[in-house]
Design goal:
Oligomer: heterodimer
Structural class of chain A: mainly beta
Strand content of chain B: over 45%
Number of helices of chain A: 0
Number of strands of chain A: 12
Shape of chain A: globular
Largest sheet of chain B: 7 strands, mixed
Distance between the termini of chain B: 37 Å
Mean pLDDT of chain A: 93
Helix content of chain A: under 10%
Number of strands of chain B: 11
């Protein structure tokens, strides 16, 4: 079974600085998708960024970018120019292609605090 | 376009009762998935529906069930409630079941069991 591990329960960063959240996963599949979701106190899970495993190029969405290392099974999220609105729980998630196409496997989450 | 709508937002039940939660997906989305979120277990997959058929089920007891209607709306039911069923239940929708389709989540239903 696939597993996702986020080793940092909490992180903090100064406003306007850069922070990197770590995620590792375990799978025997060769094709899959990886996601970062953000969950603010309002509870709604918001998709931040998506990466297809067959693409070597790291995904980027404005201030958010990933460092995808397939061989190392690592998928970290970098947030540049941190803003107060970035404060939230961040979840790394895995989705396989072959089994249950819409089943997301989540990590335990990292709580990100932005210091003004 | 309206997002994923879950009702009710909060629910309080007692042990032994049953509960039904509702999820209306984004217009045009035909795939619906449910997740349970607790502080101890984190986010766990419950089940996935597409075209009124359950395509995948997580490791939950048979007390947890669901269904999807022809308009893609989905309900999940939990019977004989236990204290451990207290959780945030999240629904997510996507255009279809293909793996690359991103899932969009609702605000969840907070279920408390007394």
């Amino acid at each position: 079974a696939q597993t996702v591990t986020q080793s940092q329960p909490e992180m903090s960063v100064q406003e306007a600085e850069t922070v990197t959240l770590s995620c590792t996963y375990d799978t025997s599949e060769s094709d899959y998708y990886l996601f970062w979701y953000k969950q603010p106190p309002s509870r709604q899970m918001i998709l931040v960024i998506r990466q297809e495993a067959y693409k070597q190029q790291n995904a980027t969405e404005n201030r958010f970018s990933v460092n995808f290392q397939k061989a190392a099974k690592s998928f970290s999220l970098k947030i540049s120019d941190s803003q107060l609105g970035d404060a939230a729980m961040y979840f790394c998630a895995y989705k396989g292609v072959n089994q249950g196409a819409q089943k997301l496997v989540f990590g335990q989450g990292t709580r990100l605090t932005i210091n003004p | 376009k309206a997002g994923v709508t879950q009702t009710p937002r909060y629910l309080i039940k007692t042990r032994g009762q049953q509960v039904t939660l509702s999820c209306s997906p984004i217009s045009g989305h035909r795939s619906v998935s449910w997740y349970q979120q607790t502080p101890g277990q984190g986010l766990q997959f419950l089940f996935e529906y597409f075209s009124e058929t359950q395509r995948n089920k997580g490791n939950f007891p048979g007390r947890f069930s669901g269904r999807q209607f022809s308009n893609s709306r989905s309900e999940m039911n939990v019977s004989t409630l236990e204290l451990g069923d207290s959780a945030l239940y999240l629904c997510a929708s996507s255009l279809g079941p293909e793996g690359g389709q991103p899932q969009h989540f609702g605000d969840g239903t907070r279920l408390s069991i007394l």
